[in-house]
Every structure is written in structure tokens, then in C-alpha cells.
Amino acid sequence: MNSECGSARRELWPDNGPRSVTPQVVEAQRHVAGCASCAEFFEEMRRLSDDVRRSASRTVAPLEVRDRLFKAISRARTQTGTRVRPNAALIGAGASAAILLLIFGIKAFSGGNPSAPRSLIPVMVEEHARALGEAGIRSSNPSEIAQWLNGRLSFAMQVPIFAEASLRGARVVEVEERRGALIEYGLGKDLVSYFVVAGYARVRTPSAPSLVETVWDGYHVVSWTEPGLLHAFVGNVSESKLRLLARKCIEQTASTMVAFSGP
Amino acid sequence: MRRQYPVAPRAFEELISEHLDSLYRTVLRLARGQVADAEDLLQDAVLRAFEHFSQLRDQGAGRSWLFAILVRTNLNRVRAASRRPEQLSADLTDGAFEEALAAWTPNFTPGEFLDRAESAERILKALDDLTPELRAAVVLTDIEGFSQREAAQLLEVPEGTVASRIFRGRRDLRQALTEDAPALRARRRR
User: Fold this and answer.
1) CB atoms inside a 10 Å sphere around CB A10
2) Which residues of B touch A60 (CB under 8 A)?
3) Cα distance from B63 to chain A (closest Cα, Å)?
4) What pTM was computed for the model?
5) Span B94-189: which CATH code?
6) What number is the ipTM of this complex?
7) Sequence ranges of chain B with CATH classification 1.10.1740.10
8) A51 and B174: CB-CB below 8 Å?
9) Cβ pair B3:A98 closer than 8 A
10) Which of A178, A246, A259, B100 shows a CA-CA span of 20 to 30 A to B20?
11) Partners of A232 in the beta sheet?
12) B5 φ/ψ sector (left φ>0, alpha ψ -120 to 50, else beta)
């Protein structure tokens, strides 16, 4: 080691950052190439860095942390949505309309099925707002998704396909302690979730399902029931788009999804 | 009446989901391996990011933006909790830094003497024992792969300061890991 070692190491430190090639850098590189001590210094630094990176790289966020975090975001989203409305008059009108729509929506929804809980819509909206994550399957292949879901659900699941929406994946959800499927579609730049949950509308359903529309937290929800199953499309797109998807879905899946057992 | 959102639905969740593992890895080290503290810090930072998400113009810069908020949130916590036993160490002058670089004598790295699991455990323990500012510099560059310049921006300090902190962090790590070097060498010979 000689007096040039300090300045050469300083010039080339740290070893992982981009740097401009200046005459000083060239001189420092020339020094290191001919100095065993400096070459060893940088080699040892590289090994230390590798050891540190390897040691920490296996750490991943536990599922419960992920879950807690997304619930916190969901709560914050609701609070933020309330806070940013433009003015008092619109705030009042908007709030009243949303409440009325919600009340009538849920009432209409639960009219034919008294057992459907009123908290169902917010739960589905919250599930929709979460990304697929590791607990699901990412695929655009309906057969692959159906196979994946059918190994995890108590009912036979058919995955509808739409010309205007691209299939992105699916995951299993728990809604009011009832297991169901969430299938995710891309609709232009937006995302739409299709829910099928077992254990609802077990009695007296109309022969032709009627669609019920609701708005919650800025998301539109179009739902319907058939014996043993609840279906819903949720998304931040217009009701007409969701309604169209729902109708096509009903056509495709008519009588093909059968609940094996109740909750 | 449709409620308008300041944040595009799902875009924020997707951003968090994409970077959650590296964010969690970082908070765990910044919190010295204390899981509860790490989770609190992570949640604080993520909610702060959510609040300011509309300010993120370039989605491609999402990772740096999230880390900037995370580092800032941690810094505020460290400053606020001055009663904590952690001590901040003074940064080196340019001259002192150069002297420290020159004074480094080659030794060994723990990976040469320990099996992988044992090595990882010791290194993480030694990392957690570094002072907060050295730990942050090492975590951001060595573990998360940020360049010196990026780390300097995240930590809001000059690049030279980050350079010296990385060096001192690694030096302290090696010091901690070589305290029982004779025993480790003996084990290797057996």
C-alpha cells in the first residue's frame, strides 16, 4: 500500500455506482490494476456487499402483513373519497343520493333474499380494490382458471369470456365467511371483478335473474342471484358496461354452475 | 351522483403489491429486526404514500417514490424518538474518509467461514447493530440495489456522505463479524 491508495480508492468508491470517466478515474483505475492491496480491497468490498444482499434477500412480507396493509388502505380510501368533494352543496346532494341509492339498492337486492347481509356490497368492493396478489392465479386461459378455482370451491365454476374484456386471473375470496371466486377482467384501462359466492338466495328465486345495481365508494355493483349462488360485477366503470357483462355472463353460465352444498 | 376519487382505484394497491416485499425487507432492517416496529413503520409510510399518490406523475418512478416516503417516515420517527438508545454518528470529512479507505487492510468475509444460514443470521444481526444512518445507506445500496446517487436523493444527503456511510457501514459490519475470527478459522480448518 502506498500514498496513492487512499485517493484511488476514494475516486472509485463506491464500487456499484455509475461514474463519469474523468482523467482522475482513469488514473485511479490504472493504480488499482497494479496494486494488489487496492484490488483486494475492492474484491473484499464486493464480497461483503454480496453477503449482505444474500442474507436479506429471502425476507418476504407475510400474508397477514399484506392483508392488514390493504385493509388500512381501503379504510383510508373511503376517508379520502369523502374529504375531496368539491363543495358543500354537492357534498350534501352527493351524500344523499349515494345513501338513497345504497338503501334502495341493498333493499332491492335483499328483497328476494332476506338472508343476504347488507354488509355484502362493501366487502365485495373492498375485495375488488385489492390486487390479485400471490394468493391467486394470473392467467388469460379460462380453462386453466376454472380448473384452479374448482379445486378450491364448493361449487362448479365456469369462467365466462367476453369480447370486450380480457381475462387477467382469479382468486378465492371469503365474503361473510362464505367462500367464493373473484375473476378479474381488464376492460380498457379499467379492471372489473366478477364474484360468485355460495350460500345465498337458497330459496325462491325468479326464473330469469333480475339485475340489481348499487353504488358503493365510487364503485358500481351489478348483482343477481340464482339458487345457492350470488353473482356480482364490481368496477369503476359505468353501470351500462357492467350490466352488459352481467347479461352476457348469465347467457353463458345459465344452469352450468351448481352449488354442491350450503355454507 | 358518482363519487370522484383522487386516486385511481387499484393503481395504488398494485404499486404497493409490486414492491411490498422489498419495502417490508427494508423496514425490517430499519427497525433493527423488530417486527412490530417494522409493521408500524410500513403502514405509516404506505398510508402517507396513499395520501400523496396523486403527486406521482411518472408511474415508472413508483419504486423510488415509495422508498423516498419510507425513508422520510423513518427519519421522522428516529428524530422524534430521541430517547431511543440508538446513537447517530457524525459523518466523516473528505480527508478523514480517504484516510479510512487507505487504512483498510484485507481480512476475510463471513461467507468464507460460515454456512449460508448461519452467515445470514450473523450478518443481519450485525446490520441491525449499525447506527441508523449507516444501516440505511447499506440497506438501500447493498440490499435494495439503489446507486449512490439514488440513495443520496432518498436520504437527502450529499453523494459523498452516502459514499462514506456505505464504507463505514461495511467496515463496522466486518468488525462485528470478525470479532470471533480465530474460532471461525479454526472451524474451517477442522
Assistant:
1) 22
2) 21, 24-25
3) 16
4) 0.57
5) 1.10.10.10
6) 0.79
7) 11-80
8) no
9) yes
10) A178
11) A195, A223
12) beta
